Amino acid sequence: MNCDIIGKLICNLRKEKEMTQKQLADLMNISDKTISKWERGLGCPDVSLLPELSQILGVNIEEILSGKVELNETIGGNMKKLKFYVCPQCNNLLTATGDANISCCGKKLKALVAANANEDHLLNIEPVEDQLYVSSSHEMKKEHYISFVAYIAGDRVFIVKQYPEWDMQFRFHKLGHGKLYFFCSNHGLFYQ
After folding, report:
1. Can you identify the CATH homologous superfamily of domain 3-66?
2. How do the domains of the chain map onto residue ranges?
3. How confident is residue 76, by pLDDT bands cut at 50, 70 and 90?
4. Which residue among 17, 21, 40, 128 has the highest number of C-beta atoms inside a 10 angstrom radius?
5. Pick from 75, 121, 64: which is nearest to 100 by CA?
6. Alpha-carbon gap, residue 9 to 14, rounded angstroms
7. What is the per-residue DSSP string for the chain?
8. pLDDT band at 72; cut points 50, 70, 90
9. pTM greater than 0.85
10. CATH T-level fold of 79-191
């Protein structure tokens, strides 16, 4: 750990929040001299203070310890680069349009990599007027089911969450040319 780099980051983040050293110290129930010491690189925050410090400053603990905040490139409204994350513990679905540090249930999640749908994992898609009717014969049991279906087209995404014991069928409006993604609880993310 480089105390100089960490101290400069703490100082910059504190100033971004328009806080004085005293205000930050009061929020953390420590002395402003301790904050001053950190910011001058004469010491680093104790491990026990990092969760509270990260919450107050609005950054991850890892960023504090590395001494830098990595900013993503601005990508605009292109949803075609949307990344999906699914928590293996609670099946929470999260998305990001760029690089992100995503965690759930205390674990860091990696972006899912989509595979081309095979015979066992194909959705039936039928045009019905200005909508598409999507269905599947995929089993929908607690041990094995399709968790969500997402249709991505340009600047829009349409996500339908599915649950075990439900019939896998729904309709959505055509959004133009796009790609259909779906997540099987046992076999991962597919596209069609």
Report:
1. lambda repressor-like DNA-binding domains (1.10.260.40)
2. 3-66, 79-191
3. low
4. 21
5. 75
6. 8
7. --HHHHHHHHHHHHHHTT--HHHHHHHHTS-HHHHHHHHTTS----GGGHHHHHHHHTS-HHHHHHT--PPPPP-TT-GGG-EEEE-TTT--EEEESS---EEETTEEEPPP--EE--TTS--EEEEETTEEEEE-----BTTB-EEEEEEEETTEEEEEE--TTS--EEEEE--SS-EEEEEETTTEEEE-
8. low
9. no
10. Immunoglobulin-like (2.60.40)
Residue with tokens 């991962």: 188
Considering only residues 69 and 128, tell me which one the structure prediction assigns the higher pLDDT. Answer: 128
Does 3-66 match 79-191 in CATH topology? no
Question: What is d(CA 56, CA 59) in angstroms, rounded to the nearest whole number?
Answer: 8
Confidence of residue 74 (pLDDT cuts 50, 70, 90): low
* Single-letter amino acid code for the residue at 11: C
Q: What residues contact residue 121 under an 8 Å CB cut-off, 6+ apart? A: 138, 182, 184, 187, 190
For tokens 């949803």, name the residue.
79
